[in-house]
Amino acid sequence: MRESATGWLLTLPAALAFILLLLVPTLAAVGFAFTDFELGAGPPSWIGLENFYELLDDQGFLKSFRNTLLYVGIVAPVSVLLGLVLALLIESRAPLRGFFRAVFFLPVVSLTVAMASAWQYLLHPTIGPINAMIRAVGLTGPNWLSDSGTVMLSLSAIGIWEGAGFNMVLFMAGLTAIPKELREAAQVDGARSGWERFRLVTWPLLGPTTLFVVTISLIRSVRVFDTVAVLTRGGPNKASEVLLYTMYTEGFTFLRLGYSAAITLVFLVIVLALMWIQTKVLDKRVHYV
Amino acid sequence: MSDAAISTPAPREASAFWREVPRLLILSVLGLVFLAPYIWMLSASVKQTDEIFRASMTLLPESWAIIQNYGRVLREVDIARYLLNGLIMCGGILFFQLLFAIPAGYALAKLRFPGREFVFGFVMLGLLVPAHVPALPLYIGLASIGWLDTFAALIVPSTISVFAIFLFRQFFKQLPDEIIHAARLDGMREGTIVWRIILPNAWPAATAFAIFSVVAHWNDLFWPLIVVTGHEHATPALGVLHFRTEEAGDDFGALMAASVLMTAPLLLAFLFAQKRFVEGIATTGLKG
Fold this sequence. Notes:
The complex is a heterodimer of chains A (289) and B (288). With 289 residues, chain A is mostly helical. In chain A, 73% of the residues lie in helices and 0% in strands. Chain A contains 13 helices and no strands. The mean pLDDT of chain A is 88. Chain B has 288 residues and is mainly α. Chain B is globular, with a radius of gyration of 26 Å. In chain B, 40% of the residues are buried. Classes of the chains: A mainly alpha (289), B mainly alpha (288). Chains A and B meet through helix 1, helix 3, helix 4, helix 5 and helix 6 of A and helix 2, helix 5, helix 6, helix 7 and helix 11 of B. Chain A: Keywords: Cell membrane, Membrane, Transmembrane, Transmembrane helix, Transport.
């Protein structure tokens, strides 16, 4: 009796905060998506799926949706692969382990807005060091952030730079959990090359870690916002619109809250789908014991 | 003869060293690419504007402009205020997150009470929802009670972290029940147990979570951009953004100097406590 009273008392503050700050606003956001709610335009009315029909015809939104998929499709696989390669290279032997780990982890703890400014300078068409190097070999570099053909690539490169070190740390944690004896046993059994040992021992045992890192990378990259808000503001001509930035401008610049909520719902469905796929794969594939 | 016997290990050591070379070479090249933004940011922050605009490829400036660039930033940008605001925001958020999550995590892990599984179900559901989803209604709510552009607006929406509850629950599950039973037998009240037994034991999980939370909120732009308009409550991220859009213009040297000054505090903290940072992020990586 005393135990259950204490149990309730200890969870009560968290439960109240949860309801007030998370549950109710989330349900409200879902509800808004089916209304024509606009700030300062009178009381909202229920319009069913109309916002979603509008989304399907909205070239800006469709561009934003495609751009987000493109960004996720580049950043997630490359940053996972790079994270794995870095973790394997650093973990295999001791020298300079801490130094290299710190170098690749720096972007994770750096103020994104400030580093975006540094990237803008690096990528500047006329005064940027990258194009200066390209000029040095006699070519002309593109206008990385202001050309609709290269802007998503440039943002993706920054995204990879931001995320690879994070993935590396997760892979390193996964690698240390693999007993050394297993790799040595594989060597005795004839797996001579490092690649063989990786393919037969490390990679299968790293399965759960990899799935986890892939999911996190997908979800992190769907949430791309900072670099777009700082560097391109969705431009040039919507060439770098992404879901969260479109949601932000519709909701907080144009004050079309219902429409913005509909975009939020699309965003939420994508995130939930990614998590659902993870649990499905987790059930089926990654059993190794 | 004896000389030869001593020198035999030498070739093997040398070959071990040469086997390291490709690995270190790849890491060094990649490392330089990763450090490039920092290197060029530092370089531009001490160059004269006209030298930056000549796009010279040398890292060291022909004539130093440290005082000019950093001086301009320190004169025109209220760095101290932005950093203090960031500190207040992160400190406030972390305080309430721990205040809510530690007792709840303990109750969900160690106490039996009706509705416990129900509450934990909601925690798991909450883990699925990114913070951007409730943002619109929270903004409207804060606007309607006149809290926009205050510290409360920056702090309150992030005070509840289902991830923290989940993390502390998993952590307290590993604590042996005997500690709690023994404390009860000693006649300790349930409240005293939380304060005297559970809290001191929560530190490893709390530091890991603190690092995760501070890094996430210090660097966040999305929410501060929504609720803060002026300079008074601007966070470091907003501070850089304001200087960029309103004042810096073409003065890349000053912009880079501002970026250096705003990035430095968290980077230095990381370099001093590297191991804790990496462990903190690795154990809490779950939520990202």
